[in-house]
Amino acid sequence: MGGSSPPLVFYITICCIAFIISKIIISLLCYKRWVRKRRIIEESLSGGKMVMFRSPTTQALSAKALMKKTMKLTNKDIIGSGGYGTVYKLVVDETTAFAVKRLNKGNDNKDLGFERELNTMGDIKHRNIVTLHGYYIAPQFNLLIYELMPNGGLDALLHGKSAVEKPLDWASRYRIAVGAARGLSYLHHDCVPHIIHRDIKSSNILLDQNMDARVSDFGLATMMEPDQTHVSTMVAGTFGYLPPEYFETGRATTKGDVYSFGVVLLELLTGKRPTDESFIEEGSRLVTWVTAQFDINVSNATESPKLGGLLLFNDPATHHPFNLRNSYYLTTHTFLKRLKE
């Protein structure tokens, strides 16, 4: 019997002990990870500044509780990304959700001008502009808390999967164009200080639950100080939407925004993306492509409302009418209302 194999109960006992030990180790590791994550959250909360602008949506929310939920966001919550940062969907409860934009590195939260700009953004309330509900600034990162736009961006509607399955009808395109024009006009003429967007494009025009257009990302551009009149020397934007004078003068202006808005209208009309690789490879732009189509069909221009007036976009932005407030609506109506008829 001395050379016989150990009884089965011995093996079972060893396996049980090993299982219990492994569970203890896993539990300790999970607890350690939880403590580390909690410490990171607490350090972030103590080392940063959270500001919430009062509104019916935020008045019942605790800034600390909201921040804790924000810190738990993962890649599964990402709903978009762009040149300024990554956007997450933050669900607070069954009736409340926000879009949280985590800004890319390089935004110094110690910059008082940056914080002043955020406070100005929070004061802006317009039915065609995305509302900023709050922000968080810290040495590690900066967060912007916006109202959530459930229908996404115009870019996805024009060029995404839905563009094939259920393309936008002309009435919807017209409504979106007019709404975006109103939002941009408000930034240029009614905000104090006036605001140059500097990156008007279809992905920065979002759609709310009623499919109304909302201009977004405007506050991440340079705001005009009263003594700067209508010119900012900080240039930014997206190739394909930029006006020609950007590459000559290096200046951003409200007229440049109007030019970019005109490109968005051409995008609405043609269904072509201004940043399409074919344009880049040919060294051309959507505007020059449309102009070429106009030249080809010049003999029929008076008979085709789809082509009439397209040369409005062929002039440099510096030649646009000075009365910009009227130009938004003139531009929109010239193209879309006639097309709708």
Automatic annotation (TrEMBL):
The compartments listed are: Membrane
Report the residue ranges that make up the Protein kinase domain in this protein.
73-336
Q: In the UniProt record, which is one GO cellular component term?
A: membrane
* Binding locations of ATP: K101
Bilayer topology term: Single-pass membrane protein
Question: What InterPro entries would the database entry show?
Answer: Kinase-like_dom_sf, Prot_kinase_dom, Protein_kinase_ATP_BS, Ser/Thr_kinase_AS
Does the entry feature the keyword Phosphoprotein, yes or no? yes
List residues traversing the bilayer: 6-31
GO molecular function annotations of the record: ATP binding; protein serine/threonine kinase activity
Principal location listed in the UniProt entry:
membrane
- Using the record, list the residue span of the signal peptide; answer none if the entry has no such feature: none
What keywords tag this UniProt record? ATP-binding, Kinase, Membrane, Nucleotide-binding, Phosphoprotein, Receptor, Serine/threonine-protein kinase, Transferase, Transmembrane, Transmembrane helix
Q: Which family does it belong to?
A: Belongs to the protein kinase superfamily.
Name of protein: Protein kinase domain-containing protein
Q: Which organism is it from?
A: Dendrobium thyrsiflorum (Pinecone-like raceme dendrobium)
